[in-house]
Design goal:
The structure is a single chain. This protein is of the alpha/beta class and 825 residues long. The protein folds into two domains: 94-106 and 140-478, Glycogen Phosphorylase B (Rossmann fold, 3-Layer(aba) Sandwich); 482-810, Glycogen Phosphorylase B (Rossmann fold, 3-Layer(aba) Sandwich). The chain is built from 34 helices and 26 strands. Strand 12 (232-244) and strand 13 form a beta hairpin. Helix 2 crosses helix 3, helix 4 packs across helix 20 (482-488) and helix 15 (394-400) packs across helix 16. Bound molecules: ligand 26W. Ligand 26W binds at residues 146-149, 152, 295-297, 299, 344, 382-383, 388, 390, 449, 478, 666-670, 688. It catalyses: [(1->4)-alpha-D-glucosyl](n) + phosphate = [(1->4)-alpha-D-glucosyl](n-1) + alpha-D-glucose 1-phosphate.
Length: 825
């Protein structure tokens, strides 16, 4: 390690740190630029003293974390400035990713990994008497998202910075992210999440970047022109977090909006002694960024949610236009410089809002405003579930956004006029504004998130619109960032990969194919197995600490982690677990493969059926984990509060990835990709991106089961399908009998009668229909696991063939097929 030269140059400018050279010269070789630990140590101590005002003997773990975070952040700022400056200087097109959710997780370790400073940070903190991994874990997990859609946005931000796509993420700076989950007597209890209680060291407040967001009121006509006179306004105030890419070569901005009152305080009321009322406007405005809606997949129609969506979107668009005008005067040129991606329909008000800003506020004729907006906008669909599709009552929509209601009607009749469809599927229908149709009509490209899903978007979701606009719907299969999900989360495997195929795979994941040449080498397999075991040993210790359950690292770790939803079929998994337990008890001396069943995930607070499934899993766990007959053969663990950090711990320690949704229901899945990368074969259905995982990894390395999408649709036509399936399956009959008898709820024997009744008679998600096939696939897993060499080979093949699922590939594809943006590096 050598000292970086303090005088590294960039465009004639002397910079304090050496990193800048990467941006300017595309220099891949970081080795001669590594920061020496003494420098980083001095920086940490300087922040501890001067930023935090603490001396080392009195510093808490929080103080140390903050000091280290600020020191690391300093190293992000220069590449960030350099990237921003270059984008300006070269007048580049930028992408604006609008999302109501960014499920970021912790930042510190990820930042050190991307800067190549993780080892130094660890060394430095050790020299200060501090444990780096404890410091990393002290950071709150920023949970500004519900699940897949929010985590995808976070992976995309990191990949855009890695591949050098100039980009801004726009979201809401929720004061409270997704609730914390606890179990009380096996049932989910929600507690508020409070990530901002401590200072968030990664953001820069930008009070000078603030916009007025209007709501309500009415539309008047002045000089023959519509003028919106709002009834309320709030202020959107920016907070910027830099997002650094791999090796610090590029950085982008995540800009999150905080809602503030336009009028802080009613002094007159205060002086009259009415203190609560005096603070009212402030409290009201702040509710807009107070809390993330915890519902994924069911849409509620709440006015506050619509206001949040408009708040994010209007602030973003005003910011985009301000930036554009700072250098351009012709608004018709907007699409040359601006690509706006709508992450699902949540920011779909962007269509009418951009038309309004271009026409009402900037004088463009309506049709030109339409064309300009459309050329900028792209729409990504993330779900087919009808209950998740946003539709706003025209009453609510018109009250909150009266001018937009008019514009939506105008867009609708423009579309009807221009394309004269045979039977028109309106944007406004049955007194509702349909946000999917609106987003579709306003976007030049619409995309699904896996090959199967994009097909279903064409055939089932927007068949008429697809006929009217052939070629508008395209596919962009999701991906995940291998820096966080492999390099950072699975150090033993990442080190083995580098040892085996060299470095460079982190930003060129197809290189993992190089591992295939080694899977038949026993020495390599032994190392692969050892890396997995190290993760399992660590997880077993953590499970003991956090769940009080003893599990053996020699058992097969079988993991299903994701939001709890009927279509994801955690119920299928737990019922099969009951069946397996029963089978062991019937024949205790058979050659069983020991298993640990791991569940993780939250239910939406109002989703009663999902909550019942959680209760049921916990009840089954209590009985099974206390059964002396099966104690070395089967354990069930369900740690509380599954989140990004827990995923980073569980996925690298998994042997088997459960991806068992009812075919046709999971748009893509991204957890499935993380497991694959980390060497866990999938047991799964032909759904979402499982289809492509199967294609990449080969049928011999995947445990496929279950009905296909077409078969599932056909099966539902028979109203008696579940009864027939159950009656034809002795294992299923046995399981349902045990549950109905109260074997898992001895204190309340009829607790799960409703659950059993639904499986018998209202099994829309086909748990019964797929049960035997799933059971058989699980038996194949057992047999395969018993053959160590073959199993490890299969696991390694999963890693080797996971290159396609890097979000770098996804982002490059969006850049060329939707955004028309070249890479800047
Ligand atoms: C309005 C309520 C609401 C909120 C969130 C409805 C729907 C959502 C999301 C679209 C749900 C979601 O997260 N979808 C997931 O998106 C992932 C990223 O594309 C996919 O991998 C998952 O399959 C999909 O369920």
């Amino acid at each position: 390690m050598t000292r970086i030269s303090p005088g590294a140059t960039c465009g004639g400018k002397v910079t304090r740190l050496g990193w800048i050279r990467n941006v300017c010269q595309g220099d891949d070789n970081l080795d001669d630029q590594r920061l020496i630990p003494e420098t980083l140590r001095a920086e940490v101590l300087r922040h501890l003293t001067y930023t935090l005002g603490k001396d080392a003997p009195n510093a808490s773990i929080y103080d140390w974390r903050m000091a280290l975070s600020y020191a690391i952040r300093d190293h992000i700022v220069e590449p960030w400035f350099a990237a921003t400056r270059r984008t300006w200087a070269e007048d580049r097109k930028r992408v604006y990713y609008l999302s109501m959710e960014f499920l970021i997780g912790r930042i510190l370790e990820d930042a050190t990994v991307n800067l190549g400073l993780r080892d130094q940070a660890q060394e430095v903190m050790a020299s200060l008497g501090q444990d780096f991994s404890q410091i990393v874990e002290d950071e709150p997990d920023a949970a500004l998202g519900n699940g897949g859609l929010g985590r995808l946005a976070a992976c995309f931000m990191e990949s855009m910075a890695t591949v050098g796509c100039p980009a801004y993420g726009y979201g809401i700076r929720y004061e409270h992210g997704l609730f914390r989950q606890r179990f009380q007597n096996g049932q989910q209890i929600e507690a508020p999440e409070d990530w901002l209680r401590q200072t968030h060291p990664w953001e820069f407040a930008r009070p000078e970047s603030a916009y007025t967001i209007p709501f309500k009121g009415n539309v008047e006509t002045r000089d023959g022109k519509p003028v919106w006179v709002p009834g309320e306004t709030v202020l959107a105030s920016a907070h910027d977090t830099p997002v650094i890419g791999w090796q610090g070569k590029w950085a982008n901005t995540l800009r999150l909006w905080e809602a503030l009152p336009t009028q802080m305080f009613d002094l007159e009321r205060f002086n009259r002694g009415d203190y609560a009322a005096a603070a009212e406007p402030e409290a009201l405005a702040r509710t807009l960024s107070r809390v993330l809606y915890p519902d994924d997949t069911t849409y509620q129609g709440k006015e506050l949610r619509l206001k949040q969506e408009f708040f994010l979107t209007s602030a973003a668009l005003q910011d985009i236009l301000r930036r554009f005008k700072n250098g351009h005067s012709n608004l018709r040129d907007l699409p040359k410089y601006v690509a706006i991606q709508m992450n699902d329909t949540h920011p779909a008000i962007a269509g009418p809002e951009l038309v309004r800003l271009l026409s009402d506020e900037n004088g463009l004729p309506f049709e030109e405003a339409m064309e300009t907006a459309q050329a900028c906008l792209g729409y990504t669909n993330h779900t087919l579930l009808p209950e998740a599709l946003e539709r706003w009552a025209t009453f609510t929509f018109g009250a909150v956004l009266p001018r937009h209601m008019q514009i939506v009607e105008q867009i609708d009749s423009w579309h009807r006029r221009t394309y004269s469809p045979p039977h028109y599927i309106g944007i406004v229908k049955h007194q509702e504004v349909r946000m999917g149709e609106l987003a579709f009509v306003m976007a030049h490209k619409v995309n699904g998130v896996s090959a199967l899903h994009s097909d279903l978007v064409k055939k089932n979701l927007f068949p008429e619109l697809n006929r009217l606009h052939p070629g508008r719907i395209i596919n962009q299969t999701n991906g995940v960032t291998p820096r966080r999900w492999l390099k950072m989360a699975n150090r033993p495997l990442a080190d083995l990969i580098t040892e085996t195929i060299g470095d460079g795979w982190e930003a060129d994941l197809d290189k993992l194919r190089g591992l295939e040449a080694h899977v038949d080498d026993a020495a390599f397999r032994a190392k692969f197995d050892k890396s997995k075991r190290a993760n399992k040993v660590a997880l077993a210790a953590w499970i003991k600490d956090h769940c009080g359950v003893t599990v053996s690292p020699d058992a097969l770790f079988d993991v299903q982690v994701k939001r709890i939803h009927e279509y994801k079929r955690q119920l299928l998994n737990i019922l099969q677990t009951v069946s397996h337990w029963h089978a062991i008890k019937q024949d205790p001396t058979a050659n069983w493969v020991p298993r640990v069943k791991i569940f993780g995930g939250k239910s939406a607070p109002g989703y009663a059926v999902a909550k019942e499934i959680i209760h049921f899993i916990n009840d089954v766990a209590t009985v099974v984990n206390n059964d002396p007959d099966t104690k070395d053969l089967l354990k069930i663990v369900y740690p509380e509060n599954y989140n990004v950090s827990m995923a980073e711990r569980l996925i690298p320690a998994s042997d088997l990835s459960e991806q068992i949704s009812t075919a046709g229901k999971e748009a893509s899945g991204t957890g499935n990709m993380k497991f694959m990368m980390n060497g866990a074969p999938t047991i799964g259905t032909l759904d979402g991106a499982n289809v492509e995982i199967l294609q990449e990894v080969g049928a011999e390395n995947f445990f496929l089961f279950g009905l296909t999408t077409e078969e599932a649709m056909k099966r539902r036509e028979d109203p008696d399908q579940s009864r027939k399936a159950i009656e034809a399956s002795q294992p299923m009959l046995d399981v349902l009998q045990m549950v109905a008898e109260g074997r898992f709820s001895p204190d309340q024997k009829d607790r799960y009668h409703g659950l059993v009744h639904r499986v018998w008679h209202h099994d829309y998600f086909l748990v019964a229909a797929d049960f035997d096939a799933y059971n058989a696939a699980q038996a194949k897993v057992d047999a395969a696991y018993a053959d160590r060499a073959a199993w490890v080979r299969m696991a390694a093949m999963n890693t080797a063939r996971s290159g396609f699922f890097s979000s770098d590939r996804t982002i490059r594809s969006y850049m060329s097929e939707i955004w028309d943006i070249p890479a800047a590096i």
